[in-house]
Amino acid sequence: MPKMIFVNLPVTDLKRATAFYEAIGAIKNPQFCDDTASCMVFSETIFAMLLTHDKFRQFTPKPIADAKTSNQVLFCLSADSRSEVDDIVGKAEAAGGVADPSPKDEYSFMYGRSFEDLDGHMWGVNWMDLAAAPPQPEMATA
């Protein structure tokens, strides 16, 4: 079984956050949803668990960071093409998010853009042609 990732995000308005993630292409899995959480499926292995602040606090004693003023992590989703990158970021902006809070990545083998969700969580969306990527320098051995 492939490893799966569940990203847990605190959100201030669960219904709005759920609608935002549906607008950018995630699918809500009602099996793991209630009035405190929405499980948003990006792929068979990538899930975003949107949690109310009260629910999020059940998993950590640390204070919840305000993602609009600080960053602890940057998320990145892969895309199948440059146009899919633009499409996802466009959908995020149309759903109330902020498009391109970070500089675009534009190389011959890679293209990336970013968006902030309604709570300020930063997401990158990147397309990469691995066959065209520059060769990796050999690691020095000690």
Describe the structure concisely.
With 142 residues, the protein is an alpha+beta fold.
Features:
single chain; 142 residues; alpha+beta; 2,3-Dihydroxybiphenyl 1,2-Dioxygenase, domain 1; 2 domains; 5-stranded mixed β-sheet; 4-stranded mixed β-sheet; 3 helices; globular
Walkthrough of the structure:
- The protein has two domains: 60 residues, Roll (2,3-Dihydroxybiphenyl 1,2-Dioxygenase, domain 1); 62 residues, 2,3-Dihydroxybiphenyl 1,2-Dioxygenase, domain 1 (Roll).
- It is 19% helix and 30% strand.
- The strands form two sheets. Strands 5, 6, 7, 8 and 9 form a five-stranded mixed beta sheet that branches.
- It is globular and about 45 Å long.
- The chain starts with a strand and ends in a 14-residue tail after the last strand.
- The mean pLDDT is 93.
CATH class of the largest domain: Alpha Beta
CATH-assigned homologous superfamily of the largest domain: 2,3-Dihydroxybiphenyl 1,2-Dioxygenase, domain 1
Question: What is the gyration radius calculated from CA atoms?
Answer: 17 Å
In the CATH hierarchy, the third-tier topology of the largest domain is known as 2,3-Dihydroxybiphenyl 1,2-Dioxygenase, domain 1
N-to-C SSE series? Answer: EHEEEHEHEEEE
The CATH architecture assignment of the largest domain turns out to be Roll
The number of distinct structural domains comes to 2
Profile the largest sheet: 5 strands, mixed
Unreliable stretches (pLDDT < 50, length at least 5) are: none
Shape: globular
Number of helices: 3
Topology:
Elements: E1 5-11, H1 14-23, E2 27-28, E3 37-41, E4 46-52, H2 53-56, E5 75-78, H3 82-94, E6 98-99, E7 105-106, E8 110-116, E9 122-128
Parallel strand pairs: 1-4, 5-9
Antiparallel strand pairs: 2-3, 3-4, 6-8, 7-8, 8-9
